[in-house]
Design brief:
Organism: Candidatus Taylorbacteria bacterium RIFCSPLOWO2_12_FULL_43_20
Oligomer: single chain
Number of helices: 15
Pfam family, one: tRNA-synt_2
InterPro entries: Aa-tRNA-synt_II, aa-tRNA-synth_II, aa-tRNA-synth_II/BPL/LPL, Lys-tRNA-ligase_II, Lys-tRNA-ligase_II_N, Lys-tRNA-synth_II_C, NA-bd_OB-fold, NA-bd_OB_tRNA
Subunit structure: Homodimer.
Subcellular location: Cytoplasm
Largest sheet: 9 strands, mixed
CATH superfamily of the largest domain: Bira Bifunctional Protein, Domain 2
Helix content: 25-40%
Length: about 475
């Protein structure tokens, strides 16, 4: 078998031959007048008429004086036949001599059915549209390497209908979510990606510098604070679908660059947002998959039934050795976390211990859609305290298939309480906690002008796409995931 270098050398020679014959191997335009899918769907109407198709040669099989080949144009694959005795001999010879799998060609001819009832175009004329110099994946052994699939996603998609379908599902998912929000009366907005403070969440940011302003900026970790400023401004329902950047580790559910939908609604609370989310996930799943349930990791996840609602401490109690996690000391929590094999990475706060136990013992077991409520106040500096128990916050997360899909809460709109929360975050930072939300004086000032009660939602679109396409690695639903450069 020829090496890739030998294949490329041969194709370069074919390219030079085309040019020597006065043929432009990369013309600017094509006379294509229909698509492959229309040729299939409207075959009876088009039969007997001369049509022009264009696409990439995906397969080829020669039988003496005739060649069957398939072209793909992004809509479908279509078979073509070029016969030596029904086309100019020079044109036939040129095809045999220069056309390879991977080339883009234009073909003109008539439609007919083969003896096997295959819809086919009998080629009268053909034209090179783009000469390929490298072979397609079936002859490129690097695609057996999973990481190379991600590095060369264009080949991954080209060689795998399943991968292509996965991203079509993701695109449709985003479209249906946007339609749901639009129908609900939300206004789509855009907020800064470059921010002077990495606020709105607890995560390590990426830092950059604007030379003209001589100022450091951070790539957004969340848009939450800007959306709430718009609530102060008088917009009642706003949302944004955008890229977020968190300078964190990479694993099967985390990529440093990811996509979230964030929204805020004035005069709403966590309870109302919970109903909204349940309707959204049920409708989007039904419209994208065709039914309100998906198979994920061998389990059927049903969005049609009412979602379960469980408390955070209740789940810790159910799935750990802690009988009273609410009152457990830091030493008891740390011992339980270490006993479970939780890696604390020098994080020694009560929140870190509880979160580690939850992620290790609880979250993977939540297969059916489940709302988790009643989190400790230290879990989010922007969520409103519960009136009947100020040590808890009015927050919920949605888990399905063991994936964290949604984070939402009744937004804190008391600037005094918010200032105290910021001070607590700064205390955590002094104690060595790396992921804190820095004090934002501008946001506090906006709150002091008056912020109505409101509910906020964050939806991890990559993870929702994982669930809908039954993949276990977030890289499978991100077209170009973050990878360490080669070399």
């Amino acid at each position: 078998m020829a090496s890739i270098e030998e294949i490329r050398k041969t194709r370069l020679e074919k390219l030079e031959y085309l040019k020597s014959q006065g043929i432009q191997p990369y013309p600017s335009s094509t006379e294509r007048n229909t698509s492959n899918i229309k040729a299939i769907d409207d075959f009876d109407k088009l039969a007997g008429k001369e049509i022009i198709l264009a696409g990439r040669i995906m397969s080829e099989r020669a039988q003496g004086g005739l060649v069957f080949f398939n072209i793909y144009d992004g809509t479908s694959s279509f078979q073509a036949l070029i016969k030596k005795d029904e086309i100019e001999e020079a044109s036939f010879d040129l095809f045999i001599k220069t056309a390879d799998i991977g080339d883009f060609v234009e073909i003109k001819g008539d439609l007919f059915l083969t003896k096997r009832e295959e819809k086919t175009l009998k080629v009268k004329e053909w034209k090179m549209l783009a000469k390929s110099l490298m072979p397609l994946p079936e002859k490129w052994h690097g695609l057996k390497d999973v990481e190379e699939r991600f590095r060369k996603r264009y080949l991954d998609i080209l060689s795998s209908p399943d991968v292509r379908r996965r991203f079509e599902i993701r695109s449709l998912m985003v479209k249906r979510i946007r339609e749901f929000y639009d129908r609900a009366g939300y206004m789509e907005v855009e907020t800064p990606v470059l921010q002077p403070l990495a606020g709105g969440a607890t995560a390590l940011p990426f830092k950059t510098r604007h030379n003209a302003l001589e100022t450091d900026f951070y790539l957004t970790i969340a848009q939450e604070l800007y959306l709430k400023k718009l609530i102060v401004a008088g917009f009642n329902k706003v949302y944004e679908i955008g890229r977020k950047f968190r300078n964190e580790g990479i694993d099967v559910t985390h990529n440093p660059e990811f996509t979230m939908l964030e929204s805020n609604e004035a005069y709403a609370d966590a309870a109302g947002q919970m109903k909204f989310i349940e309707e959204l996930f049920r409708e989007v799943t039904r419209n994208v998959i065709g039914k309100p349930e998906v198979v994920y990791g061998g389990n059927t996840v049903n969005f049609d039934k009412p979602f379960a609602v469980k408390t955070f401490f209740g789940l810790i109690r159910e799935h750990s050795g802690l009988n009273n996690p609410e009152q457990a000391s830091n030493d008891e929590l740390k011992a339980e976390a270490l006993n479970m094999g939780v890696k604390m990475e020098n994080r020694n706060t009560r929140q870190a211990f509880l979160d580690g136990i939850y992620k290790k013992a609880v979250r993977p077991k939540l297969i059916q859609p489940t709302f988790i409520i009643d989190y400790p106040v230290e879990f989010n500096p922007f969520a409103k305290r519960k009136h009947d128990n100020p040590s808890l916050i009015d927050r919920f997360q949605l888990i399905a298939g063991g994936l964290e899909l949604v984070n939402a809460f009744s937004e804190l709109n008391n600037p005094i309480d918010q200032k105290e929360r910021y001070e607590d975050e700064e205390r955590k930072k002094r104690e060595g906690e790396p992921e804190i939300s820095p004090s934002d004086a501008d946001y506090l000032e906006a709150m002091e002008h008056g912020m109505p009660p409101n509910g906020g939602i964050g939806i991890g679109l990559d993870r929702f796409a994982m669930l809908l396409t039954d993949v276990k690695n977030i890289k499978e639903v991100i077209l170009f995931p973050t990878l360490k450069p080669k070399g």
